[in-house]
Amino acid sequence: MSLLGRLLNNRRAGETHMAWNLPNLHGPETLTLTSRHFGDGGTMQLEHCAKHIGGQDRSPHLAWSPPPTGTAQLLLVVEDLDVPMGKPAVHCVALIDPAVGQLEPGDLAGKQPGQGVRVLRSTLGRGYHGPGPIKGHGPHRYVFQLFALETPLDASSATTPPDRARPRTLLPAVTPPVLGRARLTGVFER
C-alpha cells in the first residue's frame, strides 16, 4: 500500500455532489443501463482504465433500454465518487442521439467518438478517461449515469456553449425535465 493512498484513505468525494443528485437531473428511473464488460458493482477491466496504470483508456460497452417518447438527447456522465477531493471527478460527459441504443468499446474517444456521440469536456479533458486511482487508496466507484433529456443541451439557458463548458457549470444548467434515467457502477482498485 502506498503512503499517499494510506494518508488519503478516509478522504472521498462521496455521492452528495454527483450529477445524479442535482435537482435539475432528477427524474424517473425508467431506463436500464448495462455493460457486457462489468455488472453493476462489478470490477472494471484494466483495458478500460487509464494509460498511466497500464490500461488503454478505452470506454467500455454500454447499452440501455429505449428512451421515453419525447427524448431529444441522452446525456451520459461518468464520475469517480471516491476521488480524494471535495466533489467527484468527472471522467466523461457525452451527448448521445436518442436513436443510438448502445456504445461499443471506444465510442467515447475524444478524437473519434462513435456515430451519434458528441463528447464534451470532463474534469480530465475531452472524451473518456478511465480509472486511475491512487495506489493503496482502496476501491473507487465509477458511476455511469444516463439521462433522457426533453430539451437538447444546446437549447438550454446556459451562457457557455456545451462544447466549451466545464462539467460543474454545464450539469446544473441542464433544462428539466429529465424523462428517464439510469446508472451503472463499475469498481476499480490499485
From TrEMBL:
<protein>
    <submittedName>
        <fullName>YbhB/YbcL family Raf kinase inhibitor-like protein</fullName>
    </submittedName>
</protein>
<dbReference type="GO" id="GO:0004860">
    <property type="term" value="F:protein kinase inhibitor activity"/>
</dbReference>
<dbReference type="InterPro" id="IPR008914">
    <property type="entry name" value="PEBP"/>
</dbReference>
<dbReference type="Pfam" id="PF01161">
    <property type="entry name" value="PBP"/>
</dbReference>
<keyword id="KW-0649">Protein kinase inhibitor</keyword>
<dbReference type="InterPro" id="IPR036610">
    <property type="entry name" value="PEBP-like_sf"/>
</dbReference>
<dbReference type="InterPro" id="IPR005247">
    <property type="entry name" value="YbhB_YbcL/LppC-like"/>
</dbReference>
<comment type="similarity">
    <text>Belongs to the UPF0098 family.</text>
</comment>
